[in-house]
Amino acid sequence: MSENGKPKFGMYWASSCGGCEISVLNIGEHILTVDEIFDVVFWPVAADFKYKDVRGYPDGYIDLCLFNGAIRNSENEEMAHLLRQKSKVLVAFGSCAYEGCIPALANFTSKEAILQTVFLDSPSVDNPDRVLPQPVTAVPEGEIRIPEMYETVKSLDQVVDVDYIIPGCPPEPHQIWAVLQVVVAALTEGAELPPKGSIVGAQETAVCEECIYPKSEKKIFRFYRPYEKVPEPGVCLLEQGIVCMGPATRGGCGALCPQVGMGCRGCYGPLGEVKDQGARMLSAMASVIGVGEPEMDERMLEREFETVMDTLADPAGTFYRFSMSHSLLRRAKVNGNGHAEPEPAEAGTTNVEMAN
Amino acid sequence: MMNNENFEPVIIGFTCNWCSYRAADLAGTARVKYPPNVRLIRLMCSGRMDPTFVLQAFAGGADGVLITGCHPGECHYLEQNLKALRRTMLLKRTVAQFGIEPERVRLVWASAAEGVHLAHMITDMVEEIRALGPLNWPQVAALNGNSHVPVLKKAATVSEEKVEVAA
Amino acid sequence: MMPQERIGVYICHCGSNIAGTVDVEELSSWAGEALRHRGVVVARDYKFMCSSLGQDLIAKDIKEDKLTRVVVAACSPHLHEATFRKACADAGLNPYLCELVSIREQVSWVHTDKVAATAKAKAVISGGVERVIHHEPLEPMSVPINPATLVVGGGIAGIQAAMEIADSGFHVYLVEREPSIGGHMAQFDKTFPTLDCAACILTPKMVSIGSHPHVTLLTYSEVEQVDGYVGNFSVRVRKKASYVNHDVCTGCSICEEKCPKKVVDSVFEAGLGYRKAIYRPFPQAVPKYPVIDAENCIYFDTGKCKACEIHCEAGAIDFEQEDQIIELNVGNIILATGYDLFDARRETQYGYGRLANVFTSLEFERLTNAAGPTNGEIVLRDGETKPKAVGIIHCVGSRDRKFNNYCSVICCMQSLKFAHLVKERTGAEVYNFYIDMRTAYKEYDEFYQRVLSEGVHFIRGRVAEVTDVSNTPEEEERLVIQTEDTRMGKQRRIPVDMVILSAALEPRHDSDEIAHMFGISCSVNGWFIEKHPKLDPVATMTEGIFIAGCAQGPKDIPSTVTQGAAAAARVLGRIQQKELALEPIRAEVTEALCSGCRICNNLCPYHAITFDEAKEVSVINAALCQGCGTCVAACPSNAISGTQFSNEQVMAQLEGLLMLNMAEPVLA
């Protein structure tokens, strides 16, 4: 336990890629200011504190704890509860902790299918004894336990109470530094913090507001996957048919991706009161499909629309790439093979049974 | 395999104020009977139909969603039902990827005079959903269900070295 | 934590309409108990909530229990939403804080299982309660009404409407596509059941309109664009170049006489007669000025002739004249665009267009008209031979699944009229081939009886074909009508000299475009859709646009005149009020949340959404917005909110319907 009275800082990575940690380091020289003001008391990537150290801290000891990563297994959840107990301010840092992010795409399949692929079916795996990880293994010395993998990936706020959210995959360094400054001002000058539950380090409007391209009326005749088209410079990507989640995504990142011709992927999550980011994008995209005249008969209209929609590959994955845990459906219903389909028929049977 | 005979589906139906809601009213005035499994929400136009409503319906436990509106060419607000059509088509593709049978979302056009037709479509859909079985999405998406890794194969073999058990 | 609302729930028995199938007492005690934690402070059931006693119950509770929200579970909102809203308003509660949910049309009248019906009614009430919590007090928007009116279509419907409004002292712009007003009625000879001469009763009205100080007559003109909203429409009209200067033309007709180019008149004469390239459609045309049909004019084609200019003493011919664009501002619009006749060539077995002496109804009107191409003589196409036998076929293109499923209303009376005229003028044998005899209105059936007594033959059956192929000597050189005679139970072949087809009335072939331009809709059959087929046949769903006459559906002259007058009365009522309160259901962009993505911009058919280039946000014009909610559903950042059908309200109703608000969620 530190004796010098500096505010305490913690950062933890649950089910994540490590990019959030790097992004914090990307605040550059400001990291020195952070070190000056805060006492780091737990930060697995940077210092050698153990879980038992954290358990030993008094409740509320950590003034600011940045928790990144989704809740994939029991260890992640345990640490979430532990850090909630030991922190004054717990921040869901980055898209994984906020809304599931890429790890939550696993919610399109099942735990069993994942383990099967990773440990058994992958072409580069050599596992002749078909060994799979077990939560408990008996050995002569006793029992070895490893964390239990959950069926569904959760966001941080689905297991503990969260004080603030900094969205992004990762949150942009300039935004991280902006938030840290607010926290520092609160700690040192008694400035007010935003209301509990706020999303900080981001804007209240969509990415489009920051984007450099001029906007016109939208009429899409087909969609393009990134490899299918070289974007025309100076023109809104969506207007060219390149799927850009910008309109449905919270801004604050500086619209970096569209600037280099890459459609926004949606990593800062939805705006305002939006319950389901994917549904908003779905509705917007379907609304601006430009084919089909009202005078056409219904079958003709459907055919025209189908032709356009056929060019939009993987709508669910595209619209929910980052927000799966926070979506209304939250996960897919899958069969025994981990697919969102009825069970494949067994050889010789004529009836296909519906998945439970 | 579910026993579907005792299963009473719950279907949420979106109607538009000018055509399909009036069709539902007409079915009532004409005393046409249909099963009580559909619960209607009135919108001004099928164009108001937000995919979020459909997803919320499923997440809340509905087994099916019926979207109704004026026939193409007859929309009271000129062509907004076409937006509803496009949204429904894209929505069906998306929910299929979530493992929800696209038949659970059905789009029916009904003019104000088509009370009988609407009643037939409702009856039809109730039976179709009954055959598909309950969706039970609250159970699918429950956060507290943490099943163990299935004990499928042999346990891992371990060396004789001592292993530190993590604290 | 939001302060909880105080909600009153009222369940109507509607006599036994609801109470017979739904356990209304159980509903009311359930609502009081199970929904108490949601804010329900009082729940009652009563025999007839819409009665004054029922409404008093609500009013009393609002005052004494300080209710902030009211839910009535009764009949359809289309019937009594306004009633209960007014009851609340009178008791001091904003009317939009009252929600009416239907447990009659949607529950008690359509389900038989009492248990299931009562359970569903609980879900419906629950949905209403959850929804009403999120209602906001709203005020209707007032728009001023421009006292000028546009009437589109100068037939009898348009003329009647224009006259009534103009006679009341308000200005009317009457736009007519043809060179003269009068419409189809001007083509007729006699009108049933009185056998008045059509021209005699029509022309005084036409003259009156033509000289009315409050009417601006824009003939040979068409509406090109309509913008705006009720009380404030901007209309662009194209007045086609007639190449005749109205300021100096005296209407002497020398130009018509001297014009060397004859053209088949396919409009007024229904193709039976000729007109000139410079012409008035008929002698009593209003206005009296002729027009030059540039497509058929020798001068416009070759640069030669100019006979009209040479002979015109007033110097009224002006070949340099151009189309004129006229911008009008009006408060209300009446569409009285009439009908087109079914193209009888489509019924190929009746031989129209192939067999010379098969005529359509309009052609026959021109034959019988004293001012027509045969001076009123009923003769065959050779122009001389009088027919000895005439067959009149009802329902050509009507009541026919191949063409139009509906009845054209006037054909039976028209066919009887034709039968009478043929008998009177030629003494020929007359056969009417009908399916049913539809002679329902005042003096109509008496007319039928009269024609019966005149010795006309009536054969009930669908005519199979009209042919010139003869099977017997009597049939040679004649037309033969082959039909089933359902009364005799036989097939019959009737030789005649002339066949008249009572062709269906169809919507104008461009009715879809017209509807689109004015912001109204057409039914599947193509007629303009009225606001309510029984209770509001001249209004449309678009405020400020009215319809009258055959444009709304086939009808006879008395009904047409009535509708023209009715539409005029509605417009006059609006003009008198000087302003109109619009339902406050509309969308609004929250500027602070709008990123300027412009996805909403082209979703509005009323052009209510524009883009503010300076602020880089989208903006909705509240007066143009019709409240459909499409933009609300499309906005990817939820920056657009809709009153009365907001996301919160709909989602809340959804949760209530699924009974998720119960302490223990209950499904089905």
| Rg of chain A, alpha carbons | 23 Å
Largest interface summary: A-B, 75 and 58 residues
The number of distinct β-strands of chain B equals: 4
Gap from first CA to last CA of chain B: 44 Å
CATH architecture type of the largest domain in chain A: 3-Layer(aba) Sandwich
The strand line-up of the biggest sheet of chain A is: 2-1-3-5-9
What's the number of structural domains of chain A? 3
CATH superfamily of the largest domain in chain A: NADH:ubiquinone oxidoreductase-like, 20kDa subunit
Would you mind describing this structure in some detail?
With 356 residues, chain A is an alpha/beta fold. Helix content of chain A is 28%, strand content 12%. The longest helix of chain A has 17 residues, at 173-189. Residues 346-356 of chain A have low confidence and may be disordered. Chain B is an alpha/beta fold and 167 residues long. Chain B has helices at 20-29, 51-59, 80-97, 115-132, 137-140, and strands at residues 11-16, 38-43, 64-69, 105-109. In chain B, strands 2-1-3-4 form a four-stranded parallel sheet, with helices on both faces. The longest helix of chain B is centred in the middle third of the chain and has 18 residues, at 80-97. Chains A and B meet through helix 6, strand 6, strand 7, strand 8 and helix 9 of A and helix 2 and helix 3 of B.
Short description:
Chain A has helices at residues 19-25, 30-37, 51-56, 74-86, 94-99, 111-121, 173-189, 256-259, 277-287, 298-309, 315-319, and strands at 8-13, 39-42, 62-68, 71-73, 87-93, 136-139, 142-145, 149-154, 164-166.
Key features of this structure:
heterotrimer, A: 356 residues, alpha/beta, Rossmann fold, 3 domains, five-stranded parallel β-sheet, two-stranded antiparallel ribbon, 11 helices, 9 strands, globular, disordered C terminus, B: 167 residues, four-stranded parallel β-sheet, 5 helices, 4 strands
